[in-house]
């Protein structure tokens, strides 16, 4: 325990690398999740049954199977059928698919929550379905999406320690190395808690600012 | 088959042929026949639930007919001809889009777009639906906002306006599409009493200075008398009585009409 501060100082560059990997996985995973959330969320409102059905199935499948299993499947099982992905790619894919499925429900719910009267106003102005969605419904739905997306983003960040299980050298992985080297389990994991908490708070603050902007755009200054 | 615009100049602006509308087991309109001439101003009165608003919503294609046919300018609107025989089938979105452009609607609850300024609300459809240039659209929008007395509110958010102001913006927004037929669905019912007059004054102006076809649902009998050529009294999805505005309001022949007019006065 005595040499923990010294070991910590020596480990700082690796911790910084780990932090960067965690940030990278979070950002890329969230970007993929956001993309999938839109594609799946919009598709699950399609008038065409096959499109809607496929989207529903994908959403239910990735919500209904654990991220842990999905990650292991991509990392350990996929190579057996001939596809080998980089560990970080596996991680981003698993995070994106899993949180994209949850995000699809956010997108769908937010669109549904925009009053029907807004769509009717669009129809009365001769706007077609695509134009109504793009110009009337989505801009209002966005403001409703920010708060649930914030929760998902923080959850995604907090799910990234799983990546250390498939050899991704993320923050958890690096701190675990530090713990092994020093035997200072309590101090190492306390540091880990603190770092994740700081990152989560940072993301929350960022999203809160985004929510204020989105609400102000709807003329709801100050938020509610 | 793409929908062609074959406007029949002799045809009435709107024609309902034996139109039935049911919501589940509830029949709102029951084999209704109705004609509105071009440029005519028609007001629909009657107790709530009598099907007046449904007529406007069918015309705006916010609802679909259960049975019967709606024509606009003599052309099938709720339905479209298909195949060599021209058999009528329920209209698809592309067919509706063509004729719907002639019709505008003002809603009871205004339904302005909250994420756009007042000016953007008015400019939106002319630019994105009619393909008008942005500058031209903005210039016309400002004229229309002047017309409804809100020239100084162009940059405001709709949520910052009073109900009466919001409704006047909604009227300007509808007019920006140059509709030939304007549907007014209880446009003052959601307003505080002191704000009703400013909205009705704007509509009286429009009735006086344009040849737009007007179809109104209202409980404002004074307004109905001022703007209408004809008033239709509805009850349970049927027209009970119809006649020139003054006549019907002064000397209704039907007991149901007398009872209704007595209740709203």
From TrEMBL, chain A:
Domain ABC transmembrane type-1: 15-214
Topological category with respect to the lipid bilayer: Multi-pass membrane protein
Primary localization: membrane
Xref: CDD domains: TM_PBP2
Residue intervals passing through the bilayer: 20-40, 61-78, 186-207
Keyword Magnesium: no
Pfam family, one: BPD_transp_1
Compartmental location: Cell membrane
Gene Ontology biological process terms in this record: amino acid transport
GO molecular function: transmembrane transporter activity
Matches recorded under InterPro entries: AA_ABC_transptr_permease_3TM (IPR010065), ArtM/GltK/GlnP/TcyL/YhdX-like (IPR043429), Ectoine_EhuC (IPR014342), MetI-like (IPR000515), MetI-like_sf (IPR035906)
SUPFAM superfamilies: MetI-like (SSF161098)
One annotated Gene Ontology cellular component of this protein: ATP-binding cassette (ABC) transporter complex
Gene3D superfamilies tied to this protein: MetI-like (1.10.3720.10)
Keywords in alphabetical order: Amino-acid transport, Cell membrane, Membrane, Transmembrane, Transmembrane helix, Transport
Sequence similarity: Belongs to the binding-protein-dependent transport system permease family.
PANTHER family named in the record: L-CYSTINE TRANSPORT SYSTEM PERMEASE PROTEIN TCYL, MEMBRANE COMPONENT OF AMINO ACID ABC TRANSPORTER
NCBIfam families: ectoine_ehuC (TIGR03004), HEQRo_perm_3TM (TIGR01726)
Designated name of the protein: Polar amino acid transport system permease protein
Organism: Streptomyces nymphaeiformis
Automatic annotation (TrEMBL), chain B:
Similarity comment: Belongs to the ABC transporter superfamily.
SUPFAM superfamilies cross-referenced by the UniProt entry: P-loop containing nucleoside triphosphate hydrolases
A GO cellular component annotation in the UniProt record: plasma membrane
GO molecular function, one term: ATP binding
Protein name as it appears in the record: Polar amino acid transport system ATP-binding protein
Membrane topology: Peripheral membrane protein
Entry keyword Transmembrane helix: no
UniProt keyword Calcium, yes or no: no
InterPro entries in the record: AAA+_ATPase (IPR003593), ABC_ATPase_HisP-typ (IPR030679), ABC_transporter-like_ATP-bd (IPR003439), ABC_transporter-like_CS (IPR017871), Ectoine_EhuA (IPR014343), MetN_ABC_transporter-like (IPR050086), P-loop_NTPase (IPR027417)
Chief place where the protein resides: membrane
Keywords per UniProt: Amino-acid transport, ATP-binding, Cell membrane, Membrane, Nucleotide-binding, Transport
One Pfam family this sequence matches: ABC_tran
ABC transporter domain ranges (all copies): 14-261
Source species of the chain: Streptomyces nymphaeiformis
Subcellular location: Cell membrane
Highest taxon above the source species: Bacteria
Gene3D superfamilies: P-loop containing nucleotide triphosphate hydrolases (3.40.50.300)
Taxonomic lineage from the root: Bacteria, Bacillati, Actinomycetota, Actinomycetes, Kitasatosporales
